[in-house]
Amino acid sequence: MADITRRWTMGRRAIGAVVAGALALMVPAMLAEREATPQAAGNLQGKTVLITGSTDGLGRAVALRTAGLGAHVIVHGRNRERGDALVAEIAKGGRGSARFYAADFSSLDEVRQFAAAVERDYPRIDVLVNNAGVWNRGERQVSRDGYELHFAVNYLAHFLLTRELLPRVVEAAPSRIINVASVGQSPIDFDDVMLERPGRAAEGYPQSKLAQILFTMDLADELHDRGVIVVALHPATLMNTTMVQQSGLAAQTSVDEGAEALMHLITAPDVVSGQYYSGLRPARANAQAYDADARAKLRALSRTLAGM
Ligand SMILES: NC(=O)c1ccc[n+]([C@@H]2O[C@H](COP(=O)([O-])OP(=O)(O)OC[C@H]3O[C@@H](n4cnc5c(N)ncnc54)[C@H](OP(=O)(O)O)[C@@H]3O)[C@@H](O)[C@H]2O)c1
């Protein structure tokens, strides 16, 4: 009996050694194969990534990460000093490159000028990240064009920018458009989109974020056979960014957590177009996002408001 056990144990050891040997040969080959696939290795060499609102917070963190994978990053925001500092930091990092463009998204004219400059300077955009955002918990405010401020900056400016740059994104297919939305969503009341009725100011931010999700699903439908993936993301809840600091609420998560989720949508091979993601996972958005009539209504309204 002892002999049988010893022989069985030795047999197991021998099989173990053979398996370990085979794995030692196979693993490097498997890794080399993975690295040959740019998406799998997260290699963004030769890709152009435009990130709105990348002078601070989540956008800044993801600009650094994408440049670290070799991308050329179009950095955007209002603050030239922070924009130039980020471009210099990326250049110093030795991988990737960047260029800063200033544009205030509370003005549709500035959005148009920004889009025209990008169109002039870049033949292709591989990833467009619509991330710039404001969250103001006080009184209702309006944009330079007279529209409710959250709707104007968080949604309408990005609607216009995306429409203007769409030929460049389609040219780069397979390419991606990622709308940084939020778990905070409230349905659009088409009779009071500008929140002029008293007591509705607090709906500005969540309404603008749901508008981004409706736009995501609408555009994904439109581009289903063009090789462009369009998704929306809630990055993480109350990250430690300027936006949250200014809100007076305590941060609950780090910007790294949100950056991880956004990087997943930029690089993962299995991202599903038209999907709303919460962190790393597909999630269910507010019911209005699945209402095709509401999406068509928002599209028509947005074209009118943006003067298209
Ligand atoms: N923080 C969170 O917990 C959280 C949660 C869910 C979703 N989000 C979303 O994530 C995105 C990034 O937020 P964050 O927390 O990183 O905010 P943040 O640190 O305050 O950064 C906001 C960025 O947007 C730019 N921006 C703001 N107003 C602008 C305007 N009028 N024109 C052009 N650019 C403007 C800012 O650039 P300048 O200052 O240079 O203009 C900055 O780069 C937003 O869309 C936000 O709604 C955040």
Structural class: alpha/beta
Residue-averaged pLDDT: 90
User: Which small-molecule ligands are present, each listed once?
Assistant: NADP nicotinamide-adenine-dinucleotide phosphate
CATH topology of the largest domain: Rossmann fold
Helix content bin: 40-55%
CATH architecture of the largest domain: 3-Layer(aba) Sandwich
Topology, number of strands: 8
Strand order of the largest sheet: 3-2-1-4-5-6-7-8
Describe the structure in your own words:
The protein has 308 residues and is an alpha/beta fold. It has 2 domains: 36 residues; 266 residues, NAD(P)-binding Rossmann-like Domain (Rossmann fold, 3-Layer(aba) Sandwich). The protein is built from 10 helices and 8 strands. It has an 8-stranded mixed β-sheet, with helices on both faces. The N and C termini lie far apart (86 Å). The structure holds NADP nicotinamide-adenine-dinucleotide phosphate.
Question: Any key phrases for this structure?
Answer:
50% helix; 308 residues; alpha/beta; Rossmann fold
Topology:
Elements: H1 2-36, H2 38-41, E1 48-51, H3 57-68, E2 72-77, H4 80-93, E3 97-102, H5 108-121, E4 127-130, H6 149-171, E5 175-180, H7 204-222, E6 228-234, H8 242-247, H9 255-267, E7 276-278, E8 281-283, H10 292-305
Parallel strand pairs: 1-2, 1-4, 2-3, 4-5, 5-6, 6-7
Antiparallel strand pairs: 7-8
NADP nicotinamide-adenine-dinucleotide phosphate (NAP) binds near residues 53, 54, 133, 242 and 243.
